[in-house]
Amino acid sequence: MKSKYMAEPYRIKMVEPIRQTTRDERITLLKNAGYNPFSLRSEDVYIDLLTDSGTGAMSQDQWSAMMVGDEAYAGSKSFYKLESVVKHITGYKYFMPVHQGRGAEQVFLPQLVTKKGMYYISNIHFDTTRAHVELAGARAIDCVVEDCYDIEHYHDFKGNFCLDKLEKAIATHGKENIAGIIMTITNNSAGGQPVSMANLRAVKEIAKKNGIMTIIDGARYAENCFFIKEREDGYQDMDILDIARETFSYGDAFLMSAKKDGLVNMGGILAIKDNEAVYNKCRTYIVPMEGFPTYGGMNGRDMEALAVGLMEALDIHYLQHRIDQIRYLGDRLRDAGVPIQHPVGGHAVFVDCKAICPHIPYDQFPALAVTNALYIEGGVRAVEIGSLLLGRDPDTKKNIQSRMELMRLTIPRRVYTYNHLDVVADAMIHVYEHRHELKGYEFEYESPILRHFTATFRPLK
Ligand code: F0G
Description:
The structure is a single chain. The chain is an alpha/beta fold. The chain folds into two domains: 4-52 and 315-459, Aspartate Aminotransferase, domain 1 (Alpha-Beta Complex); 60-312, 3-Layer(aba) Sandwich (Aspartate Aminotransferase, domain 2). It contains 17 helices and 14 strands. The chain has helices spanning 23-32, 60-66, 77-90, 101-108, 127-135, 163-173, 197-209, 221-231, 240-249, 276-289, 300-312, 316-335, 353-356, 366-378, 387-390, 418-433, 451-454, and strands at 47-48, 94-98, 119-122, 139-142, 178-184, 214-217, 253-257, 268-272, 348-352, 380-381, 383-385, 406-410, 441-445, 456-459. It has a seven-stranded mixed sheet, with helices on both faces. Strands 9-12-11 form a three-stranded antiparallel sheet. Helix 1 (23-32) packs across helix 14 (366-378). The protein is globular, with a radius of gyration of 22 Å. The mean pLDDT is 96. Ligand F0G binds at residues 51, 53, 100-102, 126, 128-129, 184, 188, 217, 219, 257, 259, 268.
Protein backbone atom coordinates (compact mmCIF):
# COMPACT_ATOMS: atom_id res chain seq x y z
CA MET A 1 0.00 0.00 0.00
CA LYS A 2 1.45 3.30 -1.11
CA SER A 3 1.17 6.49 0.95
CA LYS A 4 3.95 9.05 1.67
CA TYR A 5 0.93 11.36 2.14
CA MET A 6 -0.27 10.94 -1.42
CA ALA A 7 -3.21 8.90 -2.71
CA GLU A 8 -5.77 9.01 -5.51
CA PRO A 9 -6.26 12.64 -6.69
CA TYR A 10 -10.05 12.24 -6.51
CA ARG A 11 -12.69 11.19 -4.03
CA ILE A 12 -15.44 8.80 -4.88
CA LYS A 13 -18.94 10.22 -5.31
CA MET A 14 -20.70 7.33 -7.05
CA VAL A 15 -19.84 3.66 -6.65
CA GLU A 16 -20.29 0.59 -8.79
CA PRO A 17 -20.46 -2.55 -6.65
CA ILE A 18 -18.17 -5.41 -7.67
CA ARG A 19 -18.31 -8.93 -6.28
CA GLN A 20 -15.60 -11.48 -5.63
CA THR A 21 -16.55 -15.06 -6.55
CA THR A 22 -15.15 -18.22 -4.95
CA ARG A 23 -12.29 -20.16 -6.46
CA ASP A 24 -14.64 -23.09 -7.22
CA GLU A 25 -17.12 -20.78 -8.94
CA ARG A 26 -14.32 -19.34 -11.08
CA ILE A 27 -13.13 -22.79 -12.14
CA THR A 28 -16.64 -23.50 -13.47
CA LEU A 29 -17.10 -20.02 -14.96
CA LEU A 30 -13.83 -20.26 -16.88
CA LYS A 31 -14.65 -23.77 -18.15
CA ASN A 32 -18.07 -22.52 -19.33
CA ALA A 33 -16.28 -19.65 -21.10
CA GLY A 34 -14.24 -22.18 -23.08
CA TYR A 35 -11.12 -21.07 -21.17
CA ASN A 36 -11.24 -17.77 -23.06
CA PRO A 37 -11.39 -14.72 -20.73
CA PHE A 38 -13.10 -12.68 -23.51
CA SER A 39 -16.14 -14.94 -23.01
CA LEU A 40 -16.48 -14.25 -19.28
CA ARG A 41 -19.29 -11.99 -18.17
CA SER A 42 -17.95 -8.83 -16.59
CA GLU A 43 -20.09 -9.41 -13.49
CA ASP A 44 -18.06 -12.57 -12.88
CA VAL A 45 -14.80 -10.58 -12.91
CA TYR A 46 -13.62 -8.96 -9.68
CA ILE A 47 -10.93 -6.67 -11.11
CA ASP A 48 -11.08 -6.16 -14.86
CA LEU A 49 -7.73 -5.40 -16.47
CA LEU A 50 -8.65 -6.53 -19.98
CA THR A 51 -8.16 -3.05 -21.39
CA ASP A 52 -7.85 0.64 -20.53
CA SER A 53 -9.99 1.45 -23.57
CA GLY A 54 -13.33 3.03 -22.77
CA THR A 55 -13.19 1.66 -19.22
CA GLY A 56 -12.20 4.85 -17.40
CA ALA A 57 -14.33 6.90 -15.00
CA MET A 58 -15.57 10.32 -16.07
CA SER A 59 -15.33 13.34 -13.77
CA GLN A 60 -18.17 15.46 -12.38
CA ASP A 61 -17.27 18.15 -14.92
CA GLN A 62 -17.62 15.67 -17.78
CA TRP A 63 -20.98 14.38 -16.54
CA SER A 64 -22.34 17.89 -16.11
CA ALA A 65 -21.08 18.92 -19.57
CA MET A 66 -23.15 16.08 -21.05
CA MET A 67 -26.33 17.87 -20.01
CA VAL A 68 -25.69 20.65 -22.52
CA GLY A 69 -24.95 18.40 -25.51
CA ASP A 70 -26.37 19.77 -28.74
CA GLU A 71 -27.72 16.83 -30.76
CA ALA A 72 -28.16 18.75 -34.04
CA TYR A 73 -27.35 16.64 -37.10
CA ALA A 74 -25.31 19.46 -38.65
CA GLY A 75 -23.35 22.29 -37.07
CA SER A 76 -23.86 21.21 -33.45
CA LYS A 77 -22.57 23.61 -30.77
CA SER A 78 -20.89 20.63 -29.13
CA PHE A 79 -18.91 20.00 -32.32
CA TYR A 80 -17.54 23.54 -32.31
CA LYS A 81 -16.64 23.26 -28.64
CA LEU A 82 -14.73 20.03 -29.19
CA GLU A 83 -13.12 21.43 -32.33
CA SER A 84 -11.76 24.41 -30.43
CA VAL A 85 -10.19 22.13 -27.78
CA VAL A 86 -8.63 19.86 -30.41
CA LYS A 87 -7.20 22.91 -32.23
CA HIS A 88 -5.97 24.38 -28.94
CA ILE A 89 -3.98 21.21 -28.19
CA THR A 90 -2.80 20.21 -31.67
CA GLY A 91 -2.64 23.47 -33.59
CA TYR A 92 -4.17 21.58 -36.54
CA LYS A 93 -6.54 23.27 -38.97
CA TYR A 94 -9.03 20.48 -39.66
CA PHE A 95 -10.97 18.25 -37.27
CA MET A 96 -13.66 15.58 -37.53
CA PRO A 97 -15.14 13.44 -34.76
CA VAL A 98 -15.30 9.66 -35.29
CA HIS A 99 -16.91 6.88 -33.24
CA GLN A 100 -13.56 5.51 -31.99
CA GLY A 101 -9.94 5.05 -33.09
CA ARG A 102 -10.62 2.53 -35.81
CA GLY A 103 -13.22 4.93 -37.27
CA ALA A 104 -10.42 7.45 -37.83
CA GLU A 105 -8.29 4.68 -39.36
CA GLN A 106 -10.99 3.54 -41.79
CA VAL A 107 -11.62 7.10 -43.00
CA PHE A 108 -8.04 8.38 -43.17
CA LEU A 109 -5.68 5.52 -44.06
CA PRO A 110 -7.20 4.63 -47.49
CA GLN A 111 -6.79 8.25 -48.66
CA LEU A 112 -3.00 7.99 -48.88
CA VAL A 113 -3.01 4.63 -50.66
CA THR A 114 -3.11 5.90 -54.22
CA LYS A 115 -1.85 2.81 -56.07
CA LYS A 116 -0.95 -0.86 -55.69
CA GLY A 117 2.12 -2.00 -53.75
CA MET A 118 2.21 0.75 -51.11
CA TYR A 119 3.35 0.56 -47.48
CA TYR A 120 2.73 2.25 -44.17
CA ILE A 121 5.65 2.27 -41.75
CA SER A 122 5.21 2.51 -37.97
CA ASN A 123 7.22 1.86 -34.82
CA ILE A 124 4.62 -0.87 -34.26
CA HIS A 125 1.16 -0.79 -35.83
CA PHE A 126 -1.66 -1.48 -33.40
CA ASP A 127 -3.81 -4.47 -34.53
CA THR A 128 -6.72 -2.43 -35.92
CA THR A 129 -4.32 0.01 -37.58
CA ARG A 130 -2.58 -2.90 -39.31
CA ALA A 131 -5.99 -4.30 -40.33
CA HIS A 132 -7.02 -0.96 -41.89
CA VAL A 133 -3.67 -0.64 -43.67
CA GLU A 134 -4.28 -4.06 -45.22
CA LEU A 135 -7.95 -3.37 -45.99
CA ALA A 136 -6.79 -0.25 -47.85
CA GLY A 137 -4.62 -2.51 -50.02
CA ALA A 138 -1.29 -1.54 -48.47
CA ARG A 139 1.12 -3.44 -46.25
CA ALA A 140 2.42 -2.61 -42.78
CA ILE A 141 6.10 -2.49 -41.78
CA ASP A 142 7.21 -2.14 -38.13
CA CYS A 143 10.52 -0.39 -37.37
CA VAL A 144 10.80 -0.31 -33.57
CA VAL A 145 14.18 -0.25 -31.76
CA GLU A 146 15.53 -3.69 -30.84
CA ASP A 147 15.69 -2.62 -27.15
CA CYS A 148 11.92 -3.07 -27.13
CA TYR A 149 12.35 -6.85 -27.28
CA ASP A 150 14.97 -6.91 -24.53
CA ILE A 151 12.39 -7.24 -21.78
CA GLU A 152 14.66 -7.20 -18.72
CA HIS A 153 16.87 -4.34 -19.90
CA TYR A 154 15.98 -0.73 -18.96
CA HIS A 155 15.61 1.85 -21.72
CA ASP A 156 13.95 5.26 -21.33
CA PHE A 157 12.14 5.09 -24.67
CA LYS A 158 11.52 1.52 -25.78
CA GLY A 159 8.80 2.75 -28.15
CA ASN A 160 11.26 4.65 -30.38
CA PHE A 161 11.62 4.11 -34.09
CA CYS A 162 14.88 2.52 -35.18
CA LEU A 163 15.94 5.26 -37.62
CA ASP A 164 18.21 2.85 -39.51
CA LYS A 165 15.39 0.38 -40.09
CA LEU A 166 13.14 3.27 -41.15
CA GLU A 167 15.60 4.66 -43.70
CA LYS A 168 16.29 1.16 -45.03
CA ALA A 169 12.56 0.42 -45.41
CA ILE A 170 12.09 3.65 -47.39
CA ALA A 171 15.12 2.92 -49.57
CA THR A 172 14.11 -0.70 -50.20
CA HIS A 173 10.51 0.01 -51.19
CA GLY A 174 11.03 3.47 -52.74
CA LYS A 175 9.79 6.68 -51.17
CA GLU A 176 7.02 6.98 -53.77
CA ASN A 177 5.57 3.73 -52.41
CA ILE A 178 5.38 4.80 -48.78
CA ALA A 179 1.82 5.99 -48.03
CA GLY A 180 2.74 7.41 -44.64
CA ILE A 181 4.69 6.97 -41.42
CA ILE A 182 2.54 6.22 -38.37
CA MET A 183 3.97 7.31 -35.01
CA THR A 184 2.24 5.21 -32.34
CA ILE A 185 2.55 7.08 -29.03
CA THR A 186 2.77 5.47 -26.60
CA ASN A 187 3.62 2.25 -28.37
CA ASN A 188 0.86 -0.05 -27.10
CA SER A 189 2.07 -3.37 -28.52
CA ALA A 190 5.54 -2.97 -26.97
CA GLY A 191 4.14 -2.37 -23.49
CA GLY A 192 2.80 1.20 -23.66
CA GLN A 193 6.37 2.31 -24.13
CA PRO A 194 7.05 5.99 -24.85
CA VAL A 195 8.68 7.60 -27.89
CA SER A 196 11.09 10.46 -27.23
CA MET A 197 10.69 13.94 -28.68
CA ALA A 198 14.14 13.63 -30.28
CA ASN A 199 12.99 10.44 -32.02
CA LEU A 200 9.74 12.04 -33.25
CA ARG A 201 11.76 15.00 -34.56
CA ALA A 202 14.23 12.72 -36.36
CA VAL A 203 11.41 10.65 -37.91
CA LYS A 204 9.75 13.84 -39.12
CA GLU A 205 13.01 14.97 -40.74
CA ILE A 206 13.39 11.66 -42.56
CA ALA A 207 9.75 11.87 -43.67
CA LYS A 208 10.15 15.45 -44.89
CA LYS A 209 13.32 14.65 -46.83
CA ASN A 210 11.39 11.90 -48.64
CA GLY A 211 8.10 13.80 -49.08
CA ILE A 212 6.15 11.38 -46.85
CA MET A 213 3.28 12.34 -44.52
CA THR A 214 3.54 11.59 -40.78
CA ILE A 215 0.50 10.40 -38.88
CA ILE A 216 0.30 10.40 -35.08
CA ASP A 217 -1.63 7.43 -33.66
CA GLY A 218 -2.07 9.22 -30.36
CA ALA A 219 -4.51 7.15 -28.28
CA ARG A 220 -2.15 7.65 -25.31
CA TYR A 221 -0.31 10.83 -26.35
CA ALA A 222 -0.75 12.52 -22.94
CA GLU A 223 0.99 9.62 -21.19
CA ASN A 224 3.77 9.89 -23.78
CA CYS A 225 4.13 13.62 -22.95
CA PHE A 226 4.44 12.74 -19.26
CA PHE A 227 7.38 10.39 -19.94
CA ILE A 228 9.07 13.05 -22.10
CA LYS A 229 8.74 15.57 -19.26
CA GLU A 230 10.15 13.07 -16.79
CA ARG A 231 12.96 11.52 -18.82
CA GLU A 232 14.10 13.77 -21.66
CA ASP A 233 16.60 16.60 -21.25
CA GLY A 234 15.11 20.04 -21.74
CA TYR A 235 11.50 19.12 -20.95
CA GLN A 236 11.46 18.95 -17.14
CA ASP A 237 10.16 22.50 -16.74
CA MET A 238 7.77 22.47 -19.67
CA ASP A 239 3.98 22.18 -19.29
CA ILE A 240 2.39 18.98 -20.55
CA LEU A 241 0.28 21.05 -22.96
CA ASP A 242 3.40 22.60 -24.52
CA ILE A 243 5.02 19.18 -24.81
CA ALA A 244 1.84 17.99 -26.54
CA ARG A 245 1.97 20.94 -28.94
CA GLU A 246 5.57 20.20 -29.89
CA THR A 247 4.65 16.53 -30.33
CA PHE A 248 1.85 17.45 -32.74
CA SER A 249 4.15 19.77 -34.67
CA TYR A 250 5.93 16.62 -35.96
CA GLY A 251 2.73 15.10 -37.34
CA ASP A 252 0.69 15.97 -40.41
CA ALA A 253 -2.38 14.15 -39.11
CA PHE A 254 -3.65 12.85 -35.79
CA LEU A 255 -5.78 9.73 -35.35
CA MET A 256 -7.01 9.16 -31.82
CA SER A 257 -8.97 6.57 -29.94
CA ALA A 258 -10.40 9.01 -27.39
CA LYS A 259 -11.35 6.01 -25.21
CA LYS A 260 -7.89 6.25 -23.67
CA ASP A 261 -6.40 9.73 -23.07
CA GLY A 262 -9.70 11.39 -23.99
CA LEU A 263 -11.12 10.01 -20.73
CA VAL A 264 -14.40 9.00 -22.38
CA ASN A 265 -16.08 5.64 -22.87
CA MET A 266 -16.56 6.04 -26.62
CA GLY A 267 -15.28 8.48 -29.22
CA GLY A 268 -12.41 9.38 -31.50
CA ILE A 269 -10.61 12.17 -33.30
CA LEU A 270 -9.40 12.68 -36.86
CA ALA A 271 -7.40 15.89 -37.25
CA ILE A 272 -5.27 17.11 -40.15
CA LYS A 273 -2.64 19.81 -39.86
CA ASP A 274 -3.08 21.70 -43.13
CA ASN A 275 -3.36 19.31 -46.08
CA GLU A 276 -6.59 20.56 -47.63
CA ALA A 277 -6.73 17.95 -50.39
CA VAL A 278 -6.54 15.05 -47.94
CA TYR A 279 -9.03 16.79 -45.65
CA ASN A 280 -11.50 17.16 -48.51
CA LYS A 281 -11.19 13.47 -49.36
CA CYS A 282 -11.77 12.50 -45.70
CA ARG A 283 -14.72 14.88 -45.42
CA THR A 284 -16.42 13.13 -48.32
CA TYR A 285 -15.54 9.62 -47.20
CA ILE A 286 -16.55 10.12 -43.57
CA VAL A 287 -20.22 10.61 -44.50
CA PRO A 288 -20.95 7.00 -45.56
CA MET A 289 -18.41 5.49 -43.15
CA GLU A 290 -19.04 7.33 -39.87
CA GLY A 291 -21.52 10.19 -40.28
CA PHE A 292 -21.90 13.81 -41.29
CA PRO A 293 -18.58 15.62 -40.64
CA THR A 294 -19.83 17.59 -37.61
CA TYR A 295 -20.88 14.47 -35.69
CA GLY A 296 -18.98 11.67 -37.42
CA GLY A 297 -20.23 8.93 -35.11
CA MET A 298 -20.48 10.84 -31.83
CA ASN A 299 -23.45 12.17 -29.85
CA GLY A 300 -23.43 15.87 -29.03
CA ARG A 301 -23.23 14.98 -25.33
CA ASP A 302 -20.27 12.70 -25.91
CA MET A 303 -18.43 15.48 -27.74
CA GLU A 304 -19.03 17.71 -24.69
CA ALA A 305 -17.57 15.07 -22.35
CA LEU A 306 -14.56 14.61 -24.63
CA ALA A 307 -13.91 18.36 -24.81
CA VAL A 308 -13.54 18.33 -21.01
CA GLY A 309 -11.73 14.96 -20.81
CA LEU A 310 -8.99 15.97 -23.26
CA MET A 311 -7.95 18.82 -20.98
CA GLU A 312 -8.23 16.76 -17.77
CA ALA A 313 -5.88 14.16 -19.24
CA LEU A 314 -3.18 16.82 -19.64
CA ASP A 315 -3.27 17.65 -15.92
CA ILE A 316 0.08 16.81 -14.35
CA HIS A 317 -1.45 15.59 -11.06
CA TYR A 318 -3.76 13.22 -12.88
CA LEU A 319 -0.88 11.92 -15.04
CA GLN A 320 1.50 11.53 -12.11
CA HIS A 321 -1.02 9.40 -10.23
CA ARG A 322 -1.84 7.35 -13.31
CA ILE A 323 1.77 6.46 -14.07
CA ASP A 324 2.51 5.94 -10.35
CA GLN A 325 -0.24 3.32 -10.18
CA ILE A 326 1.24 1.36 -13.08
CA ARG A 327 4.70 1.60 -11.51
CA TYR A 328 3.40 0.49 -8.12
CA LEU A 329 1.98 -2.70 -9.61
CA GLY A 330 5.14 -3.21 -11.68
CA ASP A 331 7.39 -2.75 -8.63
CA ARG A 332 5.40 -5.17 -6.51
CA LEU A 333 5.70 -7.83 -9.19
CA ARG A 334 9.40 -7.22 -9.87
CA ASP A 335 10.21 -7.30 -6.16
CA ALA A 336 8.71 -10.80 -6.05
CA GLY A 337 10.75 -11.90 -9.07
CA VAL A 338 7.92 -11.85 -11.62
CA PRO A 339 9.47 -11.00 -15.01
CA ILE A 340 7.87 -7.95 -16.68
CA GLN A 341 8.62 -5.53 -19.50
CA HIS A 342 10.98 -3.11 -17.78
CA PRO A 343 10.41 -0.28 -17.23
CA VAL A 344 6.62 -0.37 -17.21
CA GLY A 345 4.87 1.81 -19.76
CA GLY A 346 1.97 4.19 -19.50
CA HIS A 347 -1.16 2.07 -19.30
CA ALA A 348 -0.27 -1.45 -18.31
CA VAL A 349 2.16 -3.93 -16.82
CA PHE A 350 3.22 -6.51 -19.40
CA VAL A 351 4.19 -9.84 -17.79
CA ASP A 352 6.78 -11.96 -19.62
CA CYS A 353 5.06 -15.35 -19.82
CA LYS A 354 7.74 -16.90 -22.01
CA ALA A 355 10.09 -16.54 -19.05
CA ILE A 356 7.47 -17.79 -16.57
CA CYS A 357 6.51 -20.88 -18.59
CA PRO A 358 9.53 -22.13 -20.53
CA HIS A 359 7.86 -25.58 -20.37
CA ILE A 360 4.85 -24.42 -22.47
CA PRO A 361 5.55 -24.13 -26.23
CA TYR A 362 4.31 -21.03 -28.07
CA ASP A 363 1.52 -22.92 -29.85
CA GLN A 364 0.11 -24.00 -26.48
CA PHE A 365 -0.10 -20.32 -25.50
CA PRO A 366 1.92 -19.69 -22.32
CA ALA A 367 0.38 -16.23 -21.77
CA LEU A 368 -3.14 -17.72 -21.92
CA ALA A 369 -2.08 -20.25 -19.27
CA VAL A 370 -0.93 -17.44 -16.96
CA THR A 371 -4.00 -15.28 -17.71
CA ASN A 372 -6.40 -18.12 -16.87
CA ALA A 373 -4.51 -19.06 -13.71
CA LEU A 374 -4.67 -15.43 -12.57
CA TYR A 375 -8.44 -15.37 -13.05
CA ILE A 376 -8.90 -18.57 -11.07
CA GLU A 377 -6.60 -17.35 -8.30
CA GLY A 378 -7.87 -13.79 -7.84
CA GLY A 379 -10.85 -13.13 -10.10
CA VAL A 380 -8.61 -10.76 -12.10
CA ARG A 381 -9.09 -10.61 -15.88
CA ALA A 382 -6.02 -9.79 -17.99
CA VAL A 383 -5.36 -10.35 -21.69
CA GLU A 384 -2.97 -12.50 -23.75
CA ILE A 385 -0.70 -10.62 -26.15
CA GLY A 386 1.38 -13.26 -27.84
CA SER A 387 1.13 -16.11 -30.33
CA LEU A 388 -2.62 -16.60 -29.77
CA LEU A 389 -3.28 -12.98 -30.79
CA LEU A 390 -0.85 -13.19 -33.71
CA GLY A 391 -2.75 -16.00 -35.46
CA ARG A 392 -1.70 -18.18 -38.39
CA ASP A 393 0.32 -17.53 -41.51
CA PRO A 394 -2.29 -16.98 -44.26
CA ASP A 395 -0.27 -19.11 -46.73
CA THR A 396 1.15 -22.00 -44.69
CA LYS A 397 -1.68 -21.95 -42.07
CA LYS A 398 0.95 -22.58 -39.39
CA ASN A 399 0.77 -20.82 -36.03
CA ILE A 400 3.10 -17.82 -36.15
CA GLN A 401 5.49 -17.62 -33.21
CA SER A 402 5.38 -14.22 -31.50
CA ARG A 403 8.71 -12.71 -30.43
CA MET A 404 7.18 -12.03 -27.02
CA GLU A 405 4.56 -13.98 -25.03
CA LEU A 406 3.00 -11.31 -22.84
CA MET A 407 0.07 -10.98 -20.49
CA ARG A 408 -1.18 -7.38 -20.24
CA LEU A 409 -2.49 -6.09 -16.92
CA THR A 410 -4.17 -2.95 -18.26
CA ILE A 411 -5.19 -0.34 -15.72
CA PRO A 412 -8.40 1.62 -16.42
CA ARG A 413 -8.20 5.37 -15.69
CA ARG A 414 -9.47 6.66 -12.32
CA VAL A 415 -11.24 3.36 -11.57
CA TYR A 416 -9.22 1.22 -9.16
CA THR A 417 -7.37 2.09 -5.95
CA TYR A 418 -4.02 0.93 -4.63
CA ASN A 419 -5.88 -1.75 -2.64
CA HIS A 420 -7.20 -3.25 -5.86
CA LEU A 421 -3.68 -3.26 -7.27
CA ASP A 422 -2.53 -5.16 -4.17
CA VAL A 423 -5.12 -7.86 -4.90
CA VAL A 424 -3.77 -8.11 -8.46
CA ALA A 425 -0.16 -8.28 -7.26
CA ASP A 426 -0.87 -10.88 -4.54
CA ALA A 427 -2.76 -13.13 -6.93
CA MET A 428 -0.11 -12.79 -9.65
CA ILE A 429 2.70 -13.55 -7.22
CA HIS A 430 0.85 -16.71 -6.13
CA VAL A 431 0.52 -17.78 -9.78
CA TYR A 432 4.23 -17.10 -10.30
CA GLU A 433 5.21 -19.18 -7.27
CA HIS A 434 3.17 -22.10 -8.65
CA ARG A 435 4.30 -21.58 -12.26
CA HIS A 436 5.62 -25.14 -12.65
CA GLU A 437 2.04 -26.43 -12.32
CA LEU A 438 0.77 -24.36 -15.28
CA LYS A 439 -0.36 -26.27 -18.37
CA GLY A 440 -0.85 -25.14 -21.98
CA TYR A 441 -4.01 -25.17 -24.09
CA GLU A 442 -5.22 -26.61 -27.39
CA PHE A 443 -8.08 -25.33 -29.54
CA GLU A 444 -11.56 -26.74 -29.26
CA TYR A 445 -12.88 -24.12 -31.74
CA GLU A 446 -10.79 -21.67 -33.76
CA SER A 447 -12.19 -18.96 -36.05
CA PRO A 448 -10.21 -18.22 -39.24
CA ILE A 449 -9.47 -14.55 -38.32
CA LEU A 450 -9.28 -12.61 -35.02
CA ARG A 451 -9.37 -16.00 -33.31
CA HIS A 452 -8.42 -14.73 -29.86
CA PHE A 453 -11.84 -13.11 -29.38
CA THR A 454 -13.99 -16.17 -30.01
CA ALA A 455 -11.83 -19.31 -29.74
CA THR A 456 -12.57 -22.01 -27.17
CA PHE A 457 -9.88 -24.22 -25.63
CA ARG A 458 -9.13 -27.46 -23.83
CA PRO A 459 -6.50 -27.46 -21.10
CA LEU A 460 -3.71 -29.96 -21.85
CA LYS A 461 -2.95 -32.67 -19.33
N1 F0G B 1 -4.35 2.73 -31.81
C1 F0G B 1 -3.89 2.27 -30.64
C2 F0G B 1 -2.47 2.54 -30.25
C3 F0G B 1 -4.72 1.52 -29.79
O1 F0G B 1 -4.24 1.06 -28.63
C4 F0G B 1 -6.06 1.28 -30.18
C5 F0G B 1 -6.97 0.51 -29.33
C6 F0G B 1 -6.50 1.80 -31.41
C7 F0G B 1 -5.62 2.52 -32.20
C8 F0G B 1 -7.90 1.58 -31.90
O2 F0G B 1 -8.78 2.35 -31.18
O3 F0G B 1 -10.26 0.68 -30.02
O4 F0G B 1 -10.90 3.09 -30.23
O5 F0G B 1 -10.93 1.64 -32.22
N2 F0G B 1 -6.59 -0.19 -28.35
C9 F0G B 1 -7.44 -0.93 -27.41
C10 F0G B 1 -6.59 -1.74 -26.48
C11 F0G B 1 -8.52 -1.72 -28.06
O6 F0G B 1 -7.16 -2.55 -25.71
O7 F0G B 1 -5.37 -1.57 -26.45
P1 F0G B 1 -10.30 1.91 -30.90
